[in-house]
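SEQUENCE, STRUCTURE TOKENS:
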Amino acid sequence: MIKETVKDAEHHMKGAILALEEDLTGIRTGRATPALVEKLPIDYFGMPTPLMQLASISIPEARSILIKPFDPTTLKAIEKSILASELGLTPNNDGKSIRLNLPPLTEERRRELVKVVRNRLEESRIAIRNIRRDIIKDLKEFEKEKLISEDDLKVGEEEIQKLTDHMIAEIDAIGTKKEKEIMEV
């Protein structure tokens, strides 16, 4: 029973880490990457649709992104969404495709992005600790219902704590790597 509960906790915690990694790919570093725009919601016939479903996204140079819509009528909607996004980029529309040129990040903007990354890391740590709290509550409930012994409860709590510490260390490593990418000139 404890093994299943710990496995369940691990599954949820890994999900939180995957969500963090996916979230961080959308934060701009010094170089262009399709991840910056591929999840950008585009109003396509009244439905918000991720850009990657409407266009091919390529990186012709280190600091530019080329977006070629599959349907040329979506060009204006894509351009509008890019302008409305938090990217702070101006799209160059040539009638067939959109080119985004990424200016080098200023020192001030880099520091702002690092703060954003740190906030996302803290949100993930909180999610991990909430999972730990819920699982320990479940274990105490099992003990109260005499499904597990008091010793089993202690062992389970220790295992959950080890798992939590491991996952938080993983979050910290991901954050350090992302901060290094952002501060790289």
The longest helix spans residues 107-144. The helical segments are 2-25, 75-84, 107-144, 150-183. The longest strand covers residues 55-61. The mean pLDDT is 90.
